[in-house]
Amino acid sequence: MKLFFVVRVAVVLVGLFVAAFSAQAGRPFLCCDYNGDKVAIVSADGKIEWEMTARHPQDCWRLPNGNILFAHAGGAREVTRAKEVVWEYQAPAKTEVQGCQPLPDGRVLVVECGTSRLVEVDRAGKIAKEIKLQTLPTVSLHNQFRGARKTTAGHYLVCFKGEGKVVELDGDGKVLRAIKVPGDVHETVLLAGGNLLITLGDGHKVIELDALEKVVWELNENDLPGNPLRLLAGCQRLPNGNTLVCNYLGHGHVGKQPQFFEVTREKRVVWQFADHAHFKTINQIQVLDVPGDVTKGEIWR
Q1: Cα(112)–Cα(100) distance, rounded to whole angstroms?
Q2: What would the 3-class secondary structure string for 55-111 be?
């Protein structure tokens, strides 16, 4: 009996050690720090390898050529690791840019609050295509939109933040469906199997919807002990089935919690990141150890 007890305790301790190691094991990543006004690349051991100032960045991508594309309050920009600007789009005055996406043909999709539109911008920085978006006049400019993504089918998924809905449009801008969600939606990711992964901002929730718009997985405000969900912003579904979620810590929570975490389908945190000395409010992330061409939608982002 004594030997059994010793063995059992040893097994438990090993399990705790493995869990602790898993929770601390890192990944290299690119991120936006909205209130910190910067975009940064962080190594797997948590060291900043590269950073660049940007006013309120909201979206970021590492391109196949190694350059970094990001959206900021006044437009979007592609830079080299030497911080040379190789492409740029300046949005009109009195607008906010809340998202961008690199497209297979070299264009960049940009969503603008204020002008209420999607634009595809060519490599010369000129608008090659425009899709007008219909918004409620009662929604403030800042709250009109967040993420916008063009799918491989040529459709657009747009987060209507202030209206609490995700809108899918065809290539000509015709509304195909509007999905009401319980929160101010910040990002919608079309997953490899066709489901939608949606973060709900101050709705303190993440949901995954199937083709019939039924919730097949969700992460709720208090599902993670000691780590309540605040404002849910960027997210990424990893090949292992886990989900990365940015827990934006603005609105009174700066410095108080991990800034993002990787959680399993069973809602167990296996990795979390907190560096309050260098980051304020991480709101978007791309893990860099996942292979694939982002311009072709080959990472689940």
Answers
A1: 10
A2: CCCCEEEECCCCCEEEEECCEEEEECCCCCEEEEEECCCCCEEEEEEECCCCCEEEE
Q: Residue 66 domain-assigned?
A: yes
SS3 207: strand
Q: Is the full-model pTM beyond 0.85?
A: yes
Q: Flag whether 11 is in a domain.
A: no
Average pLDDT of every residue of the chain: 91
For 41, the token pair is 């690349």
Give the tokens for residue 19.
Answer: 């869990």
Structural domain range at position 275? 27-296
Q: Comparing C-alpha atoms, which of 109, 98, 220 is closest to residue 159? A: 98
What is the count of structural domains for the chain?
1
Can you give the CATH number for the domain in which 113 is found? 2.120.10.30
Give the Cβ contact number of residue 153 at 10 Å: 9
Contact assessment for residue 263 and residue 239, using Cβ atoms and an 8 Å cutoff: no
Cα(31)–Cα(45) distance, rounded to whole angstroms? 15
Closest residue by Cα to residue 100 from 67, 165, 147, 34: 147
Q: Would you tell me how many other CB atoms lie within 10 Å of the CB of residue 290?
A: 19
* Rounded (5°) CA angle 202-59-26: 85
Residue 19 lies in a domain: no
- Which tens digits make up the pLDDT trace of 19-61? 333 334 589 999 999 999 999 999 999 999 999 999 999 999 9
CA distance 57 to 97: 9
Residue 89 falls inside a structural domain = yes
CA distance 188 to 250: 21
Kindly state the tokens that stand for 117: 């539109």
d(CA 287, CA 301): 9
Two tokens at 204?
Answer: 């303190």
